[in-house]
Design brief:
By secondary structure, this protein is α/β, with parallel strands linked by helices. The chain has a single domain, classed as 3-Layer(aba) Sandwich (Rossmann fold), CATH 3.40.50.2020. It contains three helices and nine strands, in the order E-H-E-H-E-E-E-H-E-E-E-E. Strand 2, helix 2 and strand 3 form a beta-alpha-beta unit. The protein starts with 9 loop residues before the first strand and ends in a 5-residue tail after the last strand. The chain binds 1-O-pyrophosphono-5-O-phosphono-alpha-D-ribofuranose. 1-O-pyrophosphono-5-O-phosphono-alpha-D-ribofuranose binds next to strand 2, strand 5 and helix 3.
């Protein structure tokens, strides 16, 4: 049995997340009806959102992973993005859906969009579970958004603080007491 050592305050519950993901999956299925989709999961933070989202998309999917990091072990964006691991598929002429956990300053997704566009996909759309408008520096179009949130450091459901809390089943707020 797993010991419960902490239970951060919930911002978005498991039920709210599940309900929103069903709606997003439905919209994506409708928008790409009859077409194949290359889904790119941005590691590490998006791994839980992406795995739940693709189960709600009723299309032929090819799943790819890419790993980018900007935060290191800090709560502040470092201002530069490192490509740690690239996708393996050729996306030329394909419908691509990038799946992110959060758009904060927008730097990660802007960098990723720039990397993808030179590879000549048919189109590139973005799904993000969370969006923090107060931190936005690089304007980014989120085609499928889960929730807009205020300027709190959020953890859980894939999102970490210094590598921890990714396994929480809901989105919580990191407080000094955690
Ligand atoms: C987080 C998050 C996004 C990015 C958003 O990744 O998963 O990719 O930051 O911030 P931005 O909009 O300010 O660029 P992080 O670098 O913490 O890596 P991780 O996903 O491996 O935790």
């Amino acid at each position: 049995m797993k010991m419960e050592l902490f239970s951060p305050e919930a911002l978005i519950t498991e039920d709210e997340i599940a309900h929103r993901i069903e709606e997003l999956g439905y919209s994506i299925t409708k928008d790409f009806e009859g077409q194949e989709l290359v889904v790119i999961c941005v590691l590490k933070g998006a791994f839980i959102f992406c795995s739940d989202l693709i189960k709600k998309i009723n299309l032929p999917i090819k799943l790819e992973f890419i790993s980018l990091s900007s935060y290191g072990d800090s709560t502040q964006s470092s201002g530069s993005v490192r490509l740690d691991m690239d996708i393996t598929a050729n996306i030329e002429g394909k419908n691509v859906l990038i799946v992110e956990d959060i758009v904060d300053t927008g730097l990660t997704i802007k960098t990723l969009m720039d990397i993808m566009k030179v590879r000549k996909p048919k189109n590139v759309k973005l799904a993000s579970l969370l969006y923090k408008p107060s931190k936005m520096k690089h304007s980014v179009k989120i085609d499928y958004l889960g929730f807009e949130i205020e300027d709190k450091f959020v953890i859980g459901y894939g999102l970490d603080y210094a590598g921890r809390y990714r396994e929480l089943p809901y989105i919580g707020i990191l407080n000094a007491g955690n």
